[in-house]
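User: Could you check the structure of this?
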Amino acid sequence: MARGGMIWVVVFWCSLACPSAVLAVEDDGLCSSAYDYKDALSKAILFFEGQRAGKLPASQRVKWRGDSALSDGKPDNVNLTGGYYDAGDNVKFGWPMAFSVSLLSWTAVEFQKEISSINQLTFLRSAIRWGTNFFLRAHSSSTTFYTQVGDANADHQCWERPEDMDTPRTLYKITSTSPGSEVAADTAAALAAASVVFKEVDSNYSAKLLRNSKLLFQLADKYRGSYQASCPFYCSYSGYQDELLWAAAWLYKASGETSYLNYVSSNEGWSQAVTEFSWDNKYAGAQTLLAKEFFAGKTNLGKFKSDADSFVCAFMPGSSSLQIQTTPGGLLYTRDSSNLQYVTSASMVLLVYSNILNAANVGGVQCGSVNFSAAKIKAFAKSQVDYILGNNPMKMSYMVGFGSKYPTQLHHRGASIPSIHYRPAKIDCNEGKSNWYSSSNPNPNTHVGAIVGGPNSNDGFNDLRSDYSHLEPTTYMNAAFVGSVAALLGESQECLQVMQIERTLTMDD
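Assistant: Sure, the predicted structure tokens are below.
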């Protein structure tokens, strides 16, 4: 099959009375994947079951995990069980958890048809609900929200299964007198986005999510103050204006109330051109959501559309305003610490934005003298997904359990120590560190679907458990990858149909 340009497939019906039909498919690299996106998506979603805290349900598919952190919240007589461990540790950080849930919800909203077509929508909704249920419990009053469970410093000195955890489960919260606008607004965004997801399948739950979202937005906006409780692990560098715009954009989408649209337009001065979309910086996400509204006729949101275009131009090779370089093997490279978090999130935004451009019949994004069509933007984002899945100089997948070669020493406490079901005797911090963290053997549990931090700037990768910046998974990295792969499902299925027709014709010839 030809690569690039146009692929023409002529289909002849056997009946002489039938006219011939011509099927044309534009190919900017979208039909050239050798990877099973359906398998990648299902595994990326499955990963979240391995990150669960609390009492595991009967439907739990990750069998090497067990119940954990069942007393969370007791010092304050509040139930804070459930939720997710953010990475390879045993702390529940509410801020990155909110970002992860908002990305999963955005994916479910944007690509519901594609995800449903491969029977993964139920699992995705379950992953979202596991997070939102925790947020509802953590929102103990209109002006009180619990933002973290666990002493991160003590936890990071210990290598222990979550089921054995005995490090302090210290509670952190924000209130009207001790604010944290970033985490309150980010959680408001997650709840609003999730309310859209559940609107048609559980209207009462959706309404509850929206009510809590509005209250958390009020807490974030009325009592402004930067969130620092999770520092030095999650520190606010971009301030809280990006989260406020992100939350307001989602609240408008969820409620339709013009007050939220007025909020973003009156605060458009906060918006700025950025080169990353991350747990800390939400500008690109808000800009993308609001650009969609701009194309729908709300022309007063032009600043957000312009900034969304700038985000695209910062990444596209050949752009006159290129700011993020690629490795020799073609991977976007923002910074060394868990670089794939920036790759997956940027790819998701580029793919969502290309869909928005297509739906609005917009020719593309103008970057100086170069115009990038929606198809070219999508093809570039697809190249990033394919790199992660194996099209890279190391010829390996950076998703655990995908393909024939992938990381075996994931920096993850639960995965690196034998399952409590296999070895029920308690394994304490020191035994975990000496016998399992320091082991050169592969992890005893395969944490299927986990995306690791990824290769270095020269595409090199050393499968070494202690190298956390390259071997540790995170929920937000996986959540963005779920969105990226879901965006490619439709294209891959259409292209497979075209290639099947072409193959049939070739055989007939």
